[in-house]
Amino acid sequence: MKLSPEELAQQHTDEAIAARIAGPSVEEFSGDFVLGGVDGTITTFAIVAGVAGASYGVTVAIVLGIANLLADGFSMAISNYLKARSDQMQLKKYRLIENIHIKEVPDREREEIRQIFAAKGFEGDLLEQVVQTICEDRHRWVDTMLVEEWGLRLQPPSPWKSGLVTFAGFVLCGSIPLLPLPLIHFGLDASTIFLSSALLTGVGFALIGVFRARVVQEGPLASVIETVATGGVAAAIAYGVGVALDMLAGSPAI
């Protein structure tokens, strides 16, 4: 994605660089929101489409949709929580391992640092100066090994925040396909309600796509098309399955 000179300047102020290096940011948790939002919208609308295809009625769609929001949303949030928790546990484990290695075989650990930075192009006195600077501070030494040898992040996201943000994205965005369904009580027919749900969901997919483009820093048009297409395919599959199963039962689809 090509950035304007102003955007490049904003991303490379002293404050922006320090904040980016320091650890997880709001943008990072935005990814969790997008993940939950996309999945919530797709799965909930797929349920609505499947119910419409099977002609089970709007009430069934509401019940199954709400059940999906709470149950599947909770499941996804827990999965993201456990992933973030595992990242924290892995970091703690390898930090302990590196501390033991530095204590027991410091010369070999120092040689690892030397080879790591030699592979980056450092050599001669400059290489030895880098090795000396890193190894004279035990905490810096361990952190360097965690990043360079094990490929770990020193500041993994908070498990609770990841889980809660994922759940919020799932429920908030996943509610979009259900919003028109209560209109059945105001005299609208099921076909009109399903069409309204489809159109509103399409708008929701587009908005999620725009937000996703901002998070991953890509063109909004491509992100919108990809998000809408993914949701549309899932809904089409669900509707087709509903129609096929309903044909076996002998009743017309919506």
How would you sum up this structure, described in words?
By secondary structure, the chain is mainly alpha-helical. The protein has a domain at 26-101 and 157-249. Helices cover 79% and strands 0% of the residues. It contains ten helices and no strands. The chain has helices at residues 5-11, 14-22, 26-54, 58-104, 106-118, 124-135, 138-148, 159-174, 190-216, 220-249. Helix 4 (58-104) packs across helix 7 (138-148) and helix 4 runs antiparallel to helix 8 (159-174). The longest helix is centred in the first third of the chain and has 47 residues, at 58-104. The chain is elongated. The model has no long low-confidence stretch (mean pLDDT 86). The chain crosses the membrane at residues 45-71, 163-184, 190-211, 223-245. InterPro entries: Ccc1_fam (IPR008217). GO terms for molecular function: manganese ion transmembrane transporter activity.
- Rounded to the nearest angstrom, the distance between the terminal CA atoms is 43 Å
User: Which bin fits the share of residues in helices?
Assistant: over 70%
Written as H for each helix and E for each strand, in order along the chain, the element string is: HHHHHHHHHH
What share of residues are in beta strands?
Answer: under 5%
Mean pLDDT: 86
GO molecular function, one term: manganese ion transmembrane transporter activity
Transmembrane segments: 45-71, 163-184, 190-211, 223-245
Protein name: VIT family protein
Subcellular location: Endomembrane system
